[in-house]
Amino acid sequence: MRAISIGKLAQAADVKVPTIRFYEQIGLLPEPDRTDSDRRIYGQATVGRLSFIKHARELGFPIDAIRTLLDLADHPEEPCKDANALAQEQLAAVEEKIGQLEALRTELKRMVDAGCSGGTAGECRVIEALADRACCPTHG
């Protein structure tokens, strides 16, 4: 197996070097081997693990969930019910966030539609709406 530097690992997984160091520090990536001159060196398996972590982060999984998912990936004989439960939790979180974003869009659209009629900031409906939370149906 060909060893690669931290820079090549970062490039292969499309992450930044500090991200790799952080994942090592919190235990998502194992401590790398070192050269005689104390430079980190990585194998191909680390590229796969780092790509797994990156994809999980892109999907919004929290670090603790990723830790559990990595443990399951390291033990393929284990049942996948825990992985499915984590995915269901993440889906619920995403759906809740979508609801919040839809409410945010509705409020911003209402503000923009009320908009300005070319007057001054003192007459601006956007400024008025931001100053008066009571007029915001999403914050009642």
TrEMBL record:
Location of the HTH merR-type domain: 3-72
- Origin: domain of life: Bacteria
Pfam families the UniProt entry points to: MerR, MerR-DNA-bind
**Coiled coil regions, renumbered to chain:** 84-114
Q: Which GO terms describe its molecular function?
A: DNA binding; DNA-binding transcription factor activity
Q: Which PROSITE patterns match?
A: HTH_MERR_1 (PS00552), HTH_MERR_2 (PS50937)
Q: Which SUPFAM superfamilies match?
A: Putative DNA-binding domain
Which keywords does the record carry?
Coiled coil, DNA-binding, Transcription, Transcription regulation
Name of this chain's protein: Transcriptional regulator
